[in-house]
Amino acid sequence: MSSDTRFAFTKIFVDDIEKQAAFYRAAFEMTEKNRLTVGTGRDAVQEIILTSGRGDDSSLIVWRYIERPTPPPGEAVLGFNVPDVAATVRAVEEAGGTVDTPIEQMPDIGFAVAFVKDPEGHLIEIAQNL
Q1: DSSP the chain
Q2: Sign of the alpha-carbon dihedral angle for 41, 35, 118, 104
Q3: What range(s) does the VOC domain occupy (predicted)?
Q4: b/e for 2-40, b at 16 or more Cβ within 10 A?
C-alpha cells in the first residue's frame, strides 16, 4: 500500500435516512456532500454523505437498505480510500482478513469498491477513485 491511503469515512445503517441526516446537520453542523443509490435487489442501498465542509475531512455516511430491514445499531462500516483496491484486498487477506464482497467496478459513479472483514469480522469498505 502507499502513503496515499487514508481513512475516509464511517457508515452507519439507519431506518429513517432523512431524519438521521437532519440530526447530524443540526447537532454537528455537518453539510450534505452527496446522495447515492447503488446496488441492485437486496443489496441496493441509499446513502447520504455528510461532512463538516472543510473539504479534507472524513465523511459520515448514513445509509439504508432499500429492500431489507436495517441491521441493529452498534456496528459501523469503516471506509478507506486507496490508490489500488486490488492490491489492498490482497494485503487484507495476507494480514488475516477475508473478502466479504469482491471488487465491483462502478465507472458510472467513478469508484471501484470491495468489502472485506478484519480478523474479528468487522466490515470495511475499500474504495478506489477511477
Answers
A1: --TT-EEEEEEEE-S-HHHHHHHHHHHH--EEEEEEEE--GGG-EEEEEEE-SSSSS-EEEEEEESSSPPPPTT--EEEEE-S-HHHHHHHHHHTT-EEEEEEEEETTTTEEEEEEE-TT--EEEEEEE-
A2: positive
A3: 6-129
A4: eeeeeebbebbbbeebeebbeebeeeeebeebeeeebbe
Copy the grid coordinates of residue 17.
435516512
Domains of the chain from N-terminus onward: 6-129 (3.10.180.10)
pLDDT in tens, 60-81: 999 999 999 988 877 788 888 8
pTM of the entire structure? 0.74
Q: What percent of the chain has pLDDT over 70?
A: 95
Contacts of 29 (CB under 8 A, 6+ apart): 52, 53
Backbone angles phi, psi at 63, to 5 degrees: -145, 160
CB 98 within 8 A of CB 50: no
